[in-house]
Design a protein that fits this description.
alpha+beta; five-stranded mixed beta barrel; five-stranded mixed sheet; 26 helices; 45% helix
Length: 679
């Protein structure tokens, strides 16, 4: 080996490399084969040095010796030619790297070797360091400036997505220009950058720290975090918001993620407000959706929208109603929330809701909250409470479970849900459940506590009902309403309600319940008189209505009988005696008598009845639609309830005026009341 290496020093032009076959390529480019008598002929080494190169019928290499190609480059440093290709940034090396090729007299000694490019072309290496290492963030460093700059860029990117401002998207050339202006010419790789910045930062610690002013034009507006929050708060529920900026795409806009059990706490009213940073844009879109005559009277929509948005109280009540009221103040022309055409709103101004299971997996998503509720409505109202929960209990016969807490927290899908314990009425007993809203828990507990009172005082209550005057007539007249529960049981519940809720207090704990029970049992007998005054007139008139409806009438009057059937079903559904507020239940005989009188007038006053029906029908449909929405959302709206009973009084004033009404009522008064109803 030593001899071959020594010979190689003087024979650098006589080296050769075997190709795939038996032919050798020599330095200078000639093609040769080994002399057949050579000692190396059989083994045919890959690299050789030849003492002789002869040419007879062919070119031969004679007196050859095997060599290691690694010997060549150190011995021929002054003779080799080096070339470089594919310069690139290497994150692991923290430097620009290239492929080096080494040749000797045209013979490739090293085909491809990774080498640092900074020593070869510092200027090009510096460009790669800035472009890939700093601008594109592929430099591995713990330097404070780098973390700060990456965080700033990420924040601006998120803000651009949230605000939908393309001006906040940072162009790469701005970053390149920033670093290019600050890095010296000899800083061309990671190690040199680290050494230089340590020295430079002693004099100017924030030399490489980016600011918004370095990246944004003066025209690009920025917003505080409160304008585009990452969470939406509903009561104690914190739901994540994600933003997507891709006009035309299905995911464009804001998506709210909510566990299935928390869906009931989300309302259309709250979703309509979106986030504070988009209110002005949504107000402008609502203005543009108004009928053209109204829109023309407003003036430039952007200016008016900014003015109105500044007057709004965010997430307080109905956005549409607040905007309509503000427009009315600005223009002096009456504008109602119903005049906005929500179908014309851009997609990103309607929040999408993604419902997930307890593992965070998506179940459904839509911008239509009612559709989501319909698809994912739980089979049981207490689905959020596991069967072994202290708030999931059946067969409760007495208040032995302590006070009801105002709320309890459940963790579902990574989100803490607030639920509201309630005592429920299970017919033969009471039970414990968790409700979606405090209002629902209050309604359920009112019914559940009453059931416990009935169980405790059943003997006395039942005896009083059995001795009601003309109880047999009442049973006969009310027979169609006793399919699920006997009329005696329903009257027992009504009598219990008049005694137990004489002061309209719903107990919250065992001591409260017991105190109220002892007080209420003394009121059972006095309450019998109220029951006597109501029961017979109510059911007797109900019987008259049924008889009147059985009479045959022309097909042209079917609209009236259909309306009456619907009215009657709404007045006396299952449980109406205890579900209807007492102050309105007392008027039921008059409401039912009004139906009898209307039916009696149909023969001679069909035209007038049709005109009056046209006043009632649209308002009745309006009420039913809003009631259905409120039930889906768990909304308890006293103004809607007031509207409902005003409708009954309106029917009396139109169809049976001779009976009189308990309140002043007219179509205009109902429309005014409707403005108070939650959207």
């Amino acid at each position: 080996v030593a001899i071959h290496r020594a010979l190689l020093t003087g024979l650098l032009s006589s080296i050769a490399n075997r190709g795939d076959a038996s032919e050798y390529t020599a330095a200078g480019g000639g093609k040769f084969v080994l002399w057949p008598g050579s000692g190396s002929f059989a083994s045919k080494p890959k690299w050789i040095v030849a003492g002789e190169m002869v040419e007879t019928t062919r070119r031969y290499l004679r007196t050859v010796g095997r060599i290691d190609p690694d010997w060549i480059e150190p011995l021929a440093t002054h003779l080799v030619t080096r070339s470089y290709s594919d310069p690139r940034w290497d994150r692991k090396a923290g430097s620009a790297m290239a492929n080096e090729k080494v040749t000797l007299y045209g013979l490739t000694i090293v085909a491809e070797r990774r080498v640092r490019y900074s020593a070869i072309d510092p200027a090009a290496s510096r460009e790669l360091l800035i472009q890939y290492g700093l601008v594109e963030g592929e430099l591995d460093t713990r330097a404070d400036f780098f973390r700060h700059n990456q965080q700033l860029l990420a924040n601006l990117e998120r803000l651009a997505t949230k605000t939908r401002q393309r001006e906040l998207i940072v162009e790469p050339h701005l970053l390149y220009r920033f670093y290019d202006a600050r890095l010296p010419a000899d800083v061309c790789d990671g190690p040199r950058l680290e050494k230089w910045r340590r020295e430079a930062e002693r004099k100017q610690s924030k030399l490489l720290f980016l600011t918004e002013e370095d990246l944004l034009d003066e025209s690009a507006g920025t917003h505080g975090q409160h304008a585009f929050p990452d969470e939406l708060h509903i009561d104690r529920l914190k739901l994540p918001l994600t933003y997507h900026f891709e006009p035309g795409a299905e995911q464009d806009g804001i998506t709210l993620t909510v566990p299935r059990e928390g869906l009931a706490q989300v309302t259309d009213e709250r979703l309509a407000w979106l986030v504070p940073g988009l209110v002005a844009e949504k107000v402008e879109a609502l203005l543009r959706s108004l009928p053209k005559p109204v829109r023309r009277a407003l003036g430039p929509a952007p200016d008016v929208a900014r003015r109105i948005a500044g007057e709004l109280t965010f997430a307080r009540g109905s956005l549409h109603q607040q905007v309509a009221a503000a427009i009315s103040r600005v223009t002096g022309e009456p504008v109602t929330a119903q005049m906005f055409d929500a179908s014309r709103l851009p997609q990103h101004l309607r929040m999408k809701v993604r419902v997930v299971d307890e593992k965070g997996q998506a179940l459904e998503e839509s911008r239509d909250l009612a559709l989501l509720r319909e698809k994912l409505a739980p089979q049981q109202p207490d689905q959020a409470a596991p069967a072994d929960s202290p708030w999931h209990r059946d067969g409760v016969a007495k208040w032995d479970f302590g006070p009801l807490p105002a709320s309890v927290d459940l963790r579902r899908g990574g989100v803490v849900l607030t639920r509201y314990p309630a005592v429920i009425d299970a017919g033969d007993a009471a039970g414990l459940r968790l409700c979606d809203t405090a209002a629902e828990a209050g309604r359920q507990t009112r019914a559940g506590a009453l059931r416990l009172f009935v169980l405790a005082e059943r003997r006395e209550l039942k005896a009083q009902v059995q001795w009601l005057p003309q109880i047999e007539k009442i049973r006969l007249y009310a027979a169609p309403l006793a399919k699920e529960r006997s009329i005696d049981e329903q009257l027992v519940d009504l009598l219990a309600s008049r005694a137990f809720y004489a002061q309209d207090n719903v107990p919250n704990g065992g001591d409260e319940f017991e105190s109220q029970r002892l007080f209420a049992r003394k009121l059972i007998v006095p309450s019998v008189q109220e029951l006597t005054n109501l029961a017979l007139p109510l059911f007797e008139t109900y019987h008259e209505v049924r008889l009147a409806l059985e009479q045959r009438r022309p097909n042209g009057l079917k609209y009236a009988t259909d309306d009456i059937q619907e009215q009657l079903a709404a007045l006396v559904p299952s449980g109406f005696l205890t579900d209807t507020p007492w102050n309105w239940l007392q008027h039921f005989p008059r409401y039912l008598k009004g139906i009898v009188l209307r039916l009696g007038k149909l023969g001679s006053g069909a035209a007038r009845d049709r005109a009056n029906n046209d006043l009632v029908a649209p308002r009745w449909r309006q009420f039913q639609e809003r009631l259905a929405q409120h039930r889906l959302r768990g909304v308890d709206d006293v103004e809607l309830a007031q509207f409902r009973w005003m409708l009954e009084e309106l029917r009396v004033s139109l169809f049976a005026q001779e009976l009189g009404t308990s309140i002043a009522v007219s179509p205009q008064r109902l429309d005014k009341q409707w403005q108070k109803v939650q959207g």
